[in-house]
Structures are given as structure tokens and as C-alpha cells.
Specification:
It is a single chain. This protein is an alpha/beta fold. Helices cover 49% and strands 13% of the residues. It contains eleven helices and eight strands. The protein has helices at 12-24, 41-48, 75-82, 101-107, 136-146, 161-169, 171-188, 193-210, 217-224, 230-238, 243-262, and strands spanning 5-8, 32-35, 52-53, 65-68, 91-94, 113-118, 127-132, 150-154. The chain has an eight-stranded mixed sheet, with helices on both faces. Helix 6 (161-169) crosses helix 11. The longest helix is centred in the C-terminal third of the chain and has 20 residues, at 243-262. The relative contact order is 0.10. InterPro entries: 6-PGluconate_DH-like_C_sf, NAD(P)-bd_dom_sf, P5C_Rdtase_cat_N, P5CR-like_CS, P5CR_dimer, Pyrroline-COOH_reductase. Its main location: cytoplasm. This is Pyrroline-5-carboxylate reductase. Catalyzes the reduction of 1-pyrroline-5-carboxylate (PCA) to L-proline.
Length: 264
């Protein structure tokens, strides 16, 4: 048994991270401690594989990493109960948007912090995770925990976490919203609601498969949109006078502004 990894909070994102760890073996369940105020199916699945759920807090004394999975508004309050018991050299892993690393480190008595902004695709080991830390060893711990379940991008400037959150952390919702609009447009053209939804969802999955690898995005578009063809006509209408580009830019700017506001 190695030094344990502690996950505090098993909400939507915490559950996704835990699911990814269990699926990939990124963290041995025997080395997992889960702190949760309520029963969660994924936590019970982890318990069945050897994880400890809400053990005496003295069990945190040898933790190598402490993952904050609670809501940003509650992290400092949640820290108070565990702080007296937490290993002095434990790395604090924050998956909270908008809370600066220095603030978190101060709340955890100066312990090193790595900030991670993952998507819920980590549950299927197909997530994206942006990482930043001012401490090289803390960054390595973050990479160890998230590289098996996500494509990781390292930042050298914490200020860029706002942009990374707006693009990647929020991005899945943008794609889902577009997919919903695509289904509704198909329905307006006569498709049944069921057929339109299935086509739109399957198209999203197909498009996602197409971005595997490093081929330029313009090349991927050109592969589908023949000059003078049906797809090109749709793309021209979609981005008439730069409408699509402006809408996406506005969405990212709004998300950056909100993330900055939350950081104080």
C-alpha cells in the first residue's frame, strides 16, 4: 500500500474523477480515501474495491495528495476539519474554478498546490485537464493523477487558467448547446424529434472522433466541405458576417469575466 490519495467531495466532477481512476487504475483503490457527507454510488463502488470512506481523520496523516472536490464557496470551511490531521507535505490538488493557488495554499497552511481544470470526460478517461502550479513537485503529482484520464495541457501562467476554464472547462456545454440547436433545426425541417436528436448526437460523436491526432482544424473542415457544395452553403450561413466567430468569442469572454470575478 502506498501513500493515500484523499478525495474530498464526490459531486459531479469528483464522481467523474473517481470513476476515471477506478476504470484506469490511475490510483489503486486501496490507496484511496474518500470524504463525503452522503452516500454516492461511485464511492460505494470504490469501497467495494478497497477504498476507505470517511475513516477517522487520523488516516490523513500520510496522504500524498488531497484533492478538493467541494464547491468553491465551501472549500475553506471544509478545510478546517481536515487541516490538523493532514500530512505536512501533502500536495493540495484543486479542481475548483476561480480560486487562486496562493489563496488555497494559505488556507492549507502553506502546502504546495496544483490547480487542475478537468472536464467530466475524465470519467471515461477521455477528458481534458489544464494544470498549473508554481511548485514542480506538486505539478508532477497533478500529472500522475490526471494524465491517465485526460489529455493534459500545462500552463506556465496561472492567469491563463481563466481562459483555459472558458475554453475547455466550459467548452463541452457549448458543444452540447450547439448539438441541441442542430437537432431542433433538423426537426424544423421535418425530421421527427427522435431522429433529429439521434442524428445530432451521433454527429457530435463522429466529429469528436475526427479530431483525434494533430490534423489542422481548417483541414478537417475542408475534408467535409467541398467547394460549392451543401456543407459549404451551411457554413456560409452559419458564419454570415462573422456571426459564429463573434458568438463564440463572446461566450469565452463572458466565461473568462465570470471566472475572474469569482477569483476576487
Amino acid at each position: 500500500m502506498g501513500r493515500p490519495v484523499v478525495l474530498q467531495g464526490v459531486g459531479r466532477l469528483g464522481s467523474a474523477i473517481l470513476e476515471g481512476w477506478l476504470a484506469t487504475g490511475a490510483v489503486d483503490p486501496a490507496d484511496l480515501i474518500i470524504l463525503t457527507p452522503s452516500e454516492k454510488p461511485i464511492a460505494e463502488a470504490a469501497r467495494a474495491k478497497g477504498a476507505r470512506i470517511n475513516p477517522p481523520l487520523e488516516a490523513l496523516a500520510n496522504a500524498r495528495a488531497f484533492v478538493i472536490g467541494v464547491k468553491p464557496a465551501k472549500w475553506l470551511e471544509a478545510a478546517q476539519a481536515v487541516l490538523p490531521h493532514l500530512a505536512a507535505d501533502a500536495v493540495i490538488v484543486s479542481v475548483m474554478a476561480g480560486v487562486r493557488g496562493e489563496t488555497i495554499s494559505d488556507g492549507y497552511s502553506g502546502r504546495p498546490v496544483v490547480r487542475v481544470m478537468p472536464t467530466t470526460g475524465v470519467a471515461q478517461a477521455r477528458g481534458v485537464a489544464t494544470l498549473w502550479s508554481s511548485d514542480a513537485e506538486a505539478l508532477k503529482v497533478g500529472q500522475t493523477l490526471f494524465e491517465p484520464i485526460a489529455e493534459t495541457v500545462l500552463l506556465d501562467d496561472e492567469g491563463l487558467m481563466h481562459a483555459a476554464t472558458a475554453v475547455s472547462g466550459c467548452g463541452p456545454a457549448y458543444f452540447f448547446a450547439f448539438t441541441r440547436a442542430l437537432a431542433e433545426a433538423g426537426e424544423a425541417e421535418g425530421l421527427s424529434p427522435e431522429a433529429a436528436a439521434r442524428l445530432a448526437r451521433a454527429t457530435l460523436r463522429s466529429a469528436a472522433a475526427g479530431v483525434e491526432g494533430d490534423e489542422a482544424l481548417n483541414a478537417l473542415i475542408d475534408r467535409v466541405a467541398s467547394p460549392g457544395g451543401v456543407t459549404e452553403a451551411g457554413l456560409i450561413a452559419l458564419n454570415e458576417n462573422g456571426a459564429l466567430d463573434r458568438s463564440v468569442e463572446s461566450a469565452v469572454k463572458a466565461a473568462v469575466a465570470k471566472s475572474t470575478e469569482l477569483s476576487g
